[in-house]
Amino acid sequence: MEKYRVVIIGGGPAGLAAALESFKNLKGDKRVLIIERDRFLGGILNQCIHPGFGLHYFNEELTGPEYAHRFVEQVLENRIGYLTETHVIDITSEKEIVAVNKKGLKRIKADSIVLAMGCRERTRGAIITPGTRPAGIFTAGQAQRFINIEGYRIGKKAVIVGSGDIGLIMARRLTLEGIEVKAVVEIMPYSTGLRRNIVQCLDDFGIPLLLSHKLVKIHGKYRVEGVTIAKVDSQLQEIPSTERFIECDTVLFSVGLIPENELSKKAGIVLDMRTGGPVVDNTFSTSQKGIFACGNVLHVHDLVDNVTKEAQTAGRYAAIYSQHPELFEDNIHINVVAKDGIRYVVPQKLNKNFVQPFVLRFRVDNLYKDAVVTISNAGKILIEVKKSILTPGEMQSIEISQKILSQLDFSSDIVVSLQNI
Amino acid sequence: MIYDAVVIGAGVVGMSILRELTRYDLKICCVEKMEDVAEGASKANSGIVHAGYDPIEGTKKARFNIEGNNMFSEICKQLDVEYKMIGSLVVAFDDHEINILEELLQRGKRNGVKGLEIKDREWLFKNEPNLSKELKAALFAPYSGITNPYKLTIALFENAIQNGAEVIFGFEVCRIEKDDDFFIVRSADGRVVRTRILINCAGAYADEISKMVGAKNFKIYPRRGQYYILDKPEKLPVNRVIFQVPTEKGKGILVAPTVDGNVLVGPNSEYVDSKDDTSTTQEGLNEIFEKARKVLPSLSKRDVITIFSGIRATPDTHDFIIGEDENIENFINVAGIESPGLTSSVAIGRYVAEIVSCKLNAKRNPNFNPYREDIKRFSELSDEEREKMIKLNPSFGNIVCRCELVSEYEIIEAIKRGARTVDGIKRRTRAGMGRCQGGFCLPRVMDILSRELKIDKTQITKFGKNSYILTEKRWED
Ligand SMILES: Cc1cc2nc3c(=O)[nH]c(=O)nc-3n(C[C@H](O)[C@H](O)[C@H](O)COP(=O)(O)OP(=O)(O)OC[C@H]3O[C@@H](n4cnc5c(N)ncnc54)[C@H](O)[C@@H]3O)c2cc1C
Ligand SMILES: Cc1cc2nc3c(=O)[nH]c(=O)nc-3n(C[C@H](O)[C@H](O)[C@H](O)COP(=O)(O)OP(=O)(O)OC[C@H]3O[C@@H](n4cnc5c(N)ncnc54)[C@H](O)[C@@H]3O)c2cc1C
InterPro entries in the record, alphabetically (chain B) (predicted)? Predict the structure, then answer.
């Protein structure tokens, strides 16, 4: 069986950053391996040819492939091992990996593993959209691949469901490709996309954004012939007699992402119902010792810059684990708990052996105006942050500094909560 | 082309008849309007191999249900199709419903169903711990099973082809004439086949075909049933097929495992105006979910990965119509084959083939081979077997569909066996049937289809006709 210090599963931005950071932090034997099932490294970024990547990390605006390329180059320069067109089919709690490619099955033993498998898109079926099942129904990611990588037009007139950043960006992309976007339909009373994307992707092209609207039926026998939409009330229930038919031959679903954790389940890793990803501590260690997770497999990110930073931390600790596994023993954690308006928080734990500054990332469960996020411990408020607006679509982060860590009572949970002012 | 016998419709019934006919030395063919087999009711049903306590005694439904159930396991073995005899339960909430269980039990006994038993709550909660605690009793039928209906249709098709039958796709029968010896069967696009014997297996359209030859007058009413498919759970919520007590509308909503490890919930029952209206509706889906949840309270919409519906070909005669027409010699109707048509199909095939062989005085086909092997599936092999397969076929090591672990080899093999569309690949390999519903593998499946069939990707359809996926090529690689 082949042996490695750190094996990274997934060669997207999370995997690449984790690999580089593991490599830097290893001493002596520096064998790191990235396993990627696609033909190229770079993950989903390869098909995101629009600008908007790297503003925080590089202070410049790059396209997805450009952003990925910067990390791929470093991987190549450092001669970090990688396998493409290789699919990991199994990992065990003993950190044995089974991967398969055209040459055969490969069994690999690792000191530590970093999970960076990314996520998959929710589909028409997942949101239970009635109607017929003709051709012309795509997820945003599929459309992106067909249009940006393969060079095909996917239709003439489209309706987009979901107004997160991906839906907004695809509305602009389709328009630039000569596909008329009839509307972007959003069931919530607000868009979960960034303000600048609403302006640059919809307003600039005159594409209507229909908030509090739902796609209620798809029509068409062979190819989509249209959709029926309707207004919804505050309970998201369809309001009778507000139905409207829109003629189109294409429907794009951009209705959320789900972390891809089938392998994590096989390894017996505990998952967080709310993030859909593993429960981790501030070292990004999962419940299986020596297995770390970062990027969209852990929780869905809005910005790749955050993915990179998080993955660097995970990669660093994966390298530390391979040298000092004893620092990751059981019963060394306090919990970080999300309460009152906070949907989830990552990491969900703090490892007492690594009391070092870290970033808490979280999402709220609803739209809030003029609210305060507090972080408290043992009944004491450690941080208060005022926010004029908070939406579930925008990931929030709060830095936990050394000063705050020094005030912690380790017998008690850290609580993140939200109060209205 | 002149044939001894032509079957109209490549559903499970048509394919079963076609395969049984290849036991004889005959020139036979099936004409199908779509681009693949199993595009009608045979792809969109519950996949239950019924025990036979539902149909009224003395009916054709009862006869072919029981015969079909008895033959099912053997045929599935020969054709390498999944079949699991997991048993079924009809569950009852109150005394009135318990009385119905008693009626079903008696009817089942009269029909010749073996092993029927009414079980009490204790047994129920021990064996099906997730069912509602409100339930009082259940009728247990140990010989009910589950199968994969479209895979069975595909397997029958492949075996029939191996044994010398033909299938002509894209042939929509629109006119039929008769001269002294032959039926002249014309398609919408002008093609013609001639045949001595004509067998009508056109599903929901069988009444129209019958009318075209001027044969027996009956009507088929399309009755729709909608479904949910749930993601493969780590542990199945039910071990058996769970039916609710039947009403005049049919067998009611069921919850059942599929042979692939998903969970199926449905169908409801509603007459619709169009024989093609396989749409799903909010009302229908809500109705199903509410009813199913009464029996299985843990059911969650979060687990849904897709929804679909199928059309039952409900005849006004209230029984299967099977046999040579009284007035039109050599015209055989196999019509009104609603549930339990899947279960019955294997027995109907044998019965109809016997009629045809008698009429034509046909000899046995000495080369008939009843066995067909399924495509080797990456997901089902051990690691050692996988290594061996990859050595022989490197494409077996290229995973195309990540949710269902389908290799490139399987897709190429499906194309060799007749898949021409994305749905054809899906039904033969499961690529695109998993939790991401083709989100990842659709472009890759299209790459392989385009390469193997030597066609441009803009010509690839989801399921034939105008179901194009891409509309225009913008640049060359
Ligand atoms: C349309 C769209 C627009 C976006 N716009 C922006 C933007 O403007 N700015 C921005 O900052 N961010 C943007 N993002 C978000 C950003 O691209 C993602 O957050 C980031 O790519 C996630 O990185 P990742 O490495 O976690 O996942 P991915 O990039 O998805 O990488 C995961 C990799 O793991 C591989 N993998 C998975 N399972 C296995 C296995 N079993 N074996 C081997 N390999 C496996 C996959 O093939 C994939 O390459 C956008 C995303 C999309 C889809
Ligand atoms: C909701 C539902 C649930 C069911 N559940 C079960 C079950 O659990 N167990 C069970 O045993 N049975 C069940 N059934 C019944 C079973 O599915 C059917 O009896 C069976 O599939 C019928 O097969 P078929 O070949 O007669 O029809 P189909 O599969 O509909 O095939 C008819 C074919 O004829 C073709 N055709 C039509 N018109 C023309 C034309 N003019 N020219 C050429 N071709 C034509 C069609 O394209 C089609 O391919 C169910 C049915 C439904 C709808």
Answer: BFD-like_2Fe2S-bd_dom, BFD-like_2Fe2S-bd_dom_sf, FAD-dep_OxRdtase, FAD/NAD-bd_sf, G3P_Oxidase/Oxidoreductase
Distance CA B167, CA B31 (A): 6
Last residue of a domain, one of B299, B329, B360: B360
In whole angstroms, give the CA distance from residue B8 to residue A41: 51
Are B467 and A145 in contact (CB < 8 Å)?
A: no
Q: How far off is chain A from B67, nearest CA to CA, in Å?
A: 35
For B137-169, the pLDDT digits (tens) are: 999 999 999 999 999 999 999 999 999 999 999
Statement to judge: residues B294 and B154 lie in one domain? no
Give the ligand with the smallest distance to the CA of A13. Answer: 1
Task: Work out the pLDDT band at A330, boundaries 50, 70, 90.
Answer: confident
Partner A, chain B 244-283, Cβ-Cβ below 8 Å: 276, 278-282
In this prediction, residues A35-44 reach a mean pLDDT of: 96
Torsion angle of alpha carbons B48, B54, B56, B58, nearest 10°? Answer: 50
What digits encode the pLDDT tens for the residues B195-210?
999 999 999 999 999 9
Tell me how far CA of residue A321 lies from CA of A6, A34, A111, A283, B172, in angstroms: 9, 17, 8, 10, 66
Whether B369 is covered by a domain: the verdict is no
Per the prediction, chain B carries an average pLDDT of 96
Q: Are A100 and B438 within 8 A, CB to CB?
A: no
Confirm or reject contact between B233 and chain A (CB < 8 A).
no
Q: Which ligand is nearest to the CA of B153?
A: 2
Q: What is the pTM of this model?
A: 0.96
Burial class (CB in 10 A: 0-12, 13-18, 19+), B326: exposed
Give me the mean pLDDT over the B117-129 stretch: 97
- How many domains does chain B fold into? 3
End-to-end, the C-alpha distance of chain A in Å comes to 59
Q: What residue ranges define each of the domains in chain A, with the CATH number in brackets? A: 1-121+257-331 (3.50.50.60), 123-255 (3.50.50.60), 332-421 (2.60.40)
CATH number, domain containing residue B391: 1.10.10.1100
Q: How far is the CA of A304 from the centre of ligand 1 (A)?
A: 8
> What pLDDT, on a 0 to 100 scale, did the predictor assign at position B1?
87
Total residue count of chain B as it appears in this document: 477
What ligand is nearest to the CA atom of residue A148?
1
Peptide bond into B340 cis (omega under 30): yes
* Alpha-carbon span B72 to B276, nearest angstrom: 29
Pocket test for ligand 1, best of A7, A60, A117, A298 (most atoms within 8 A of CB): A117
The CATH number of the domain holding residue B92 is: 3.30.9.10
Question: In chain B, which residues have their Cβ closer than 8 Å to the Cβ of A131?
Answer: 279-280
- What confidence score (pLDDT) does residue B477 get? 65
Q: Say whether pLDDT at B330 is over 80.
A: yes
- Taking an 8 Å cut-off on Cβ atoms, the answer to whether A130 and B285 are in contact is yes
Does residue B377 lie in a domain region? no
What count of CB pairs under 8 Å joins A to B?
135
Strand partners, B173: B187
Q: What is the band of A421 on the pLDDT scale with cuts at 50, 70, 90?
A: confident
CB contact under 8 A, B399 and A37: yes
Is B181 part of any domain? yes
The CATH number covering residue B329 comes to: 3.50.50.60
Q: Are residues B308 and B294 located together in one domain of the fold?
A: yes
* CB-based contact B472 A101, cutoff 8 Å: no
User: Pocket residues for ligand 1 (CB within 6 Å)?
Assistant: A 9-15, 35-38, 43-45, 48, 52-53, 87-88, 116-118, 140-141, 144, 165-166, 169, 260, 263, 295-297, 301, 303-305, 307
Domain of residue B279, residue span: 85-144+221-315
Q: Which helix (H) or strand (E) holds A257?
A: strand A257-259
Is residue B300 located within the same domain as residue B226? yes
Cα of B41 from ligand 1 centre, angstroms:
39
**B470 in a domain, yes or no?**
no
Same domain, B212 and B299: no
What is residue A260's three-state secondary structure? coil
